[in-house]
Amino acid sequence: MMTDQTNFVAAALALLGPRGFTCDPDLLEPWLTDWRGRYSGAALGMAAPASTAEVAAFVKLCAEHSVPIVPQGGNSGMSGGATPDNSGASVILSLRRMNAVREFDVGGQSIVCDAGVILQNLHETAEAQNLRFPLTLGGKGSATIGGLISTNAGGTQVLRHGTMRAQVLGVEAVLADGQIFDGLTALKKDNRGFDLKQMLIGSEGTLGIVTAATLRLVPAIGERIVVWAGLQSIHDARRLLVDCQRTLPDALEGFEVVPHHCLEAVLNNEVDARNPLETMHPWNALLEFVTTDSDADALREAVETVLGAALEAQLVSDVVIASNETQAEAFWHLRDSISAAERAIGPAMQHDISVPVAKMPDFIAEVSPAVEARFDGTIAACFGHLGDGNVHFHVLAPPAVTPGEWEEAQGKDISAFVHDAVTRFGGSISAEHGIGQMKRDELGRLGDPVSLVMMRQVKQALDPQGILNPGKLVPLAPAGA
């Protein structure tokens, strides 16, 4: 270890103590690889501050020694945004020890919590007061509030409630020089210039390190009705979505699509998984309707009417309504298990993309066969949040390829092909998982030039040393620019 690094490590230990800073390789190792296993790096050490004041002091120390910082929440991101590079010069800044609820305004339906609070724990805290936090996803048991804010996460309830950006009323963050931005106060009206919290949301730790947030809550669900429907085409799924939105606009909370291949993968991988319907269908739709009042019978009657009309019009081939919570959870478990089931099959290029909702069926119907025709032996599988125009467009590798090598070779060509198609349809190459290091260069290739210049200027203004999550999100400027 170089003298400067030795001095830094000694100062970090003096500041945070042995519980707050470590260089132990065994303790570092689990946090050096991303959740998907695609990116691995090295780190000088890992800091785990216990308070915002400690985060600020540590960041100031890093700035003084020009040590890069890689912020990390639950390390469950999908784009390599919380993984250090291979230089070993950076430190991981873990927010997991900061997991307290600071304030809970039950009457005002808001909560102030540290960035390290686990999403599932937040759900349980809200539910104890007959409230709920209206954002959930498969990784709720490990995802942290800070990570969800930094990536502007989505999930299965965006159709009704919006992304993480819509849930955040205020933010506290530590800037690159160690200053604390205190924007936790939630005001419905505030015209004092730029909305700085919105700039931090979705910035993936490149502009500041989120340490706490004020979040909105909504009333707990009085009753929910979960439906699994079999369909012949993705266009039929879109038509069913439109019918449900027109008939039950205030009740439809989720609308997910699952193709035959994805359901089959889950059924083969999960011992206890069962097909909700008697036969397999080319496409499936998972719908959730909710009500916050006691009029559950009226909602069920309305849902049955919509589904009956869809069956009569041959819009759906078969349908089942969950008879209890256990069955409802089983339906959602099928959807949430798709990524794990596909990993068991083999390598895949996974694209988190969005296009305008009305164009999504045409996009899937056109691009899926085009990918399979262009890249022999691949399978294109699209699943996810049709209701908000965001699907996970996965391209599974041909049999017997070498993991790692395939992704770096043909896999990159596949991603470029998919992203070009997304751009042609007027969409985004990242809908809810962030850019991280995985899509940074693609954003530079396909992003609006003016937007990219603005991003670099903001980054330079707030982090002139470039120590906050280097190599992530913000594309490099072209040579000579």
Describe the structure in brief.
The chain is built from 17 helices and 18 strands. With 481 residues, it is α+β, with helices and mostly antiparallel strands. Helix 9 packs antiparallel against helix 14.
Topology, element by element:
Blueprint: H1 3-20, E1 21-22, H2 25-28, E2 45-47, H3 52-65, E3 69-72, E4 91-94, E5 101-105, E6 110-114, H4 119-127, E7 131-132, H5 145-151, H6 158-161, H7 164-167, E8 168-174, E9 180-183, H8 196-200, E10 209-216, E11 218-219, E12 223-231, H9 234-247, E13 252-259, H10 260-269, E14 283-291, H11 296-312, E15 318-321, H12 325-336, H13 338-345, E16 348-354, H14 360-374, E17 379-385, E18 390-396, H15 405-424, H16 440-446, H17 449-462
Parallel strand pairs: 2-4, 3-4
Antiparallel strand pairs: 1-2, 5-6, 6-10, 7-11, 8-9, 8-10, 12-14, 12-15, 13-14, 16-18, 17-18
